[in-house]
Structures are given as C-alpha cells and as structure tokens.
C-alpha cells in the first residue's frame, strides 16, 4: 500500500480590508456587539420618566437635555444633562425620539417624541403605557437569564436559562415578589388594552352570537369586560385563571371569576377566548390546553386565541424582528420549548385535537387572532 500523500490546501486570496463589503461587515458586527446599549438606554429613559416629561411639557415641545433634567430630577445637583443627551441621541437613531437643530444662539440638540416614543408616556389613554413592558423585560433576574441563552442550545432544555440563573421558573419567582408581579400585570395590561380596542372596535366579528364567553388566563377580567361592553349578545362572562389570581380580581357586572387549572378542566361556554397563553407552552402542552377547550365547547363552538404568529420567511422588517426576538425571549425566560409559531403550525395543532375549521384574522402587526371551530 502506498503511503498517503499529504493533503494540500489551495492558498486563499488575501482579503482586502479596504473594500466596501469588508467595511460594511465590520460596521455591522460592531453594531450587533454593542446592541445591548439600545434596550438598556431605553430602560434608563423609561425609569427616568423622560417621555412623560417631554409630553407633559406641552404639545410635545422639543426640549434640550438640560431642560429635561429639572423635570425628571428636580433639586439633584449631580444630574448629568450631557449623559442624558447621549442616551437620547442613540434612541433617536431607533425612532424613539426626534432630534431638532439647536435654536439660534444655542449649541444643544432638542428632542421630542415620535409615535414610538408616545407609547412610553405614563397616564396616556387608560393610564397605561408600554413603559412597564420595557421595565418588566429588564429586571435584574431576567438579565441574569439572558447571560445563559446558550443553555437553551446545550441543554437539558427542561430548564430555561432564567431558571438556571435564578434557581426557579419565572412565574414562581414572580409569585414570591409582589413588586415583580404587579409590574408584570401592568406590563401585560399596557400591551393588551390597545390591541383589545382594535379587536372590539370592528376589526373582528367572531363574537357575534356568543352568549357565554370564557376568558382563559383572563387575570383581572379586563379583556372579557371590554368584549362584553361591545357585544350585548354576551349575557355571561367567565374570567378563568389560577385561584390566587382571580382572588384579587375586582367585581365586574355580568362576569364570574372562576379559579382552576386549564390543564385539568375549563368552564363551558359558546366561545373560549385567550390572549398570549399558548406561546409559553410546548407543542404537547398546547395540545393539552386546546383539548380541554374542545371538551368545554358545544358543536360549532369556537376557541379564539390571540398570539404572536411568525412569518414563513425571515426578513429584516420591524415586524419580523419583533416576532423573532419575542420568540427568543419566551425561550429564555418562560419555556425552553415554548415558542412563537407559524400559522400552519397552529392549524395543525387545532386539527390534532378536534378543531377542523381554522381561520387567521390579521388586525395587528404583532398579534394574530386564531379562530378554531368545532
């Protein structure tokens, strides 16, 4: 046998680091490597109540960082307007603030709110904002979980990165902290109310003819209350959640608060509504939940689920990025096999538990209404 010849590798062409493509590549990776600056800067301006201060100053009048400082940190001699201006300038590049040129004789930039920034104003609309959602996402315990995202790949994936970092699942952790639990409730309400206004405002007709509506995971009952206020045909509402959750729910005319476990049984109704419930569970767990819903519905009854739904193809649009980043958030914090799913995946899950009819209604860029009918 003749000895093996040593393998040779063809010489690679030397990379031209002065080329446009290499310059752009280095810029892109530097932006990605420093991307943590963006959510942390956003968290900082929300904690400092900067959006509310700008809005409350009157008609969203552009202000300099030096003019904002006394509004957010009165009588604080250590407040640094220069550092605040740096945060605002970064967030301007991501559409949170608008930057205006200095007034004649001044040398400081002025900032006002964009439509994106307006979502962070406290007391806007129903007294809620997306600000709590920002703060909820950046608490210390959650940030500790983010440093271990690779665990979701290396496994075992019975534990989320959050649980590995903090010693217990996220919902258990929240349950032991009243402050975190309250922030979670306000964060979910701040996101839910604008969406529910779109649902009951004519964007969806699936509640027509429903007489008994069950809201699974309804928390304080806000969603079922909003739906019933629009649809007079609904004579009875059931707000179904964990016993400790509904124990804190306020009295609502026409609504009965029922405590229980959705994996064991769900109250009967003509229609079952749920919002942002299925996302945090694995496929097998979703099947269990949907099967219990099916058992609680009559022939022709429907399950109406509002969930983030992934597009079939990936692109660099704001919508796709928001949905895919939310998917990784679920994987990291709530369930290593919980996930944002695609429309066809939901259709197949429904068929597997006895829902032969399915339609998806798009009235929101983040949430999709998924209707499963027996």
UniProtKB/TrEMBL annotation:
Residue stretches making up the O-methyltransferase C-terminal domain: 149-355
Chain intervals for the UniProt region annotation (Disordered): 1-22
PROSITE patterns membership: SAM_OMT_II
Residue ranges of every copy of the O-methyltransferase dimerisation domain listed in the record: 30-122
InterPro entries: COMT-like, COMT_C, COMT_dimerisation, SAM-dependent_MTases_sf, WH-like_DNA-bd_sf, WH_DNA-bd_sf
Gene Ontology process terms (BP): methylation
Keyword field contains Transferase: yes
Biased composition (Polar residues): 1-11
A Pfam family hit: Dimerisation
Residues annotated as transmembrane: none
Stored Gene3D superfamilies: Vaccinia Virus protein VP39, Winged helix-like DNA-binding domain superfamily/Winged helix DNA-binding domain
One MF term in the entry's GO annotations: O-methyltransferase activity
Superkingdom classification of source: Eukaryota
Keywords, comma-separated and alphabetical: Methyltransferase, S-adenosyl-L-methionine, Transferase
Protein name listed in UniProt: Nicotinate N-methyltransferase 1
Species this chain originates from: Spinacia oleracea
Lineage: Eukaryota, Viridiplantae, Streptophyta, Embryophyta, Tracheophyta
């Amino acid at each position: 046998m003749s000895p093996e010849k040593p393998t040779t590798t063809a010489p690679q062409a030397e990379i031209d680091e002065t080329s446009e493509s290499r310059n752009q590549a280095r810029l892109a990776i530097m932006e990605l490597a420093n991307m943590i600056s963006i959510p942390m800067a956003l968290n900082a301006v929300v904690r400092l109540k900067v959006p509310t201060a700008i809005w409350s100053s009157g008609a969203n009048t552009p202000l300099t960082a030096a003019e904002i400082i006394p509004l957010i940190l009165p009588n604080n001699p250590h407040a640094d307007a220069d550092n605040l201006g740096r945060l605002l300038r970064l967030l301007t590049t991501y559409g949170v603030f608008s930057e205006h040129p200095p007034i004649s004789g001044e040398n400081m930039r002025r900032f006002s709110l964009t439509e994106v920034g307006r979502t962070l104003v406290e007391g806007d609309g129903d007294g809620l904002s997306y600000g709590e959602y920002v703060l909820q996402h950046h608490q210390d315990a959650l940030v500790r979980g983010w440093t271990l995202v690779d665990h979701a790949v290396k496994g075992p994936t019975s534990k989320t990165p959050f649980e590995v970092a903090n010693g217990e699942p996220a919902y258990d952790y929240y349950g032991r902290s009243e402050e975190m639990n309250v922030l979670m409730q306000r964060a979910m309400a701040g996101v839910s109310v604008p969406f529910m206004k779109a649902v009951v405002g004519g964007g969806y007709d699936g509640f027509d003819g429903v007489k008994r509506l069950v809201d699974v995971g309804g928390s304080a009952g806000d969603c079922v209350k909003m739906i019933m206020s629009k649809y007079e045909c609904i004579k009875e509402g059931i707000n179904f959640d964990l016993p400790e959750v509904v124990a804190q729910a306020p009295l609502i005319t026409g609504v009965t608060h029922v405590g229980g476990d959705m994996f064991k049984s769900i109250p009967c109704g003509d229609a079952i509504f749920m919002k942002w419930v299925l996302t945090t569970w694995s496929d097998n767990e979703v099947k269990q939940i949907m099967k219990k819903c099916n058992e609680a519905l009559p022939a022709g009854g429907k399950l109406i689920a509002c969930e983030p739904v992934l597009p079939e193809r990936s692109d660099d649009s704001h919508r796709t990025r928001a949905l895919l980043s939310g998917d990784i958030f679920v994987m990291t914090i709530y369930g290593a096999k919980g996930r944002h799913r695609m429309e066809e995946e939901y259709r197949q899950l429904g068929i597997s538990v006895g829902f032969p009819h399915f339609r998806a209604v798009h009235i929101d860029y983040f949430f999709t209404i998924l209707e499963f009918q027996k």
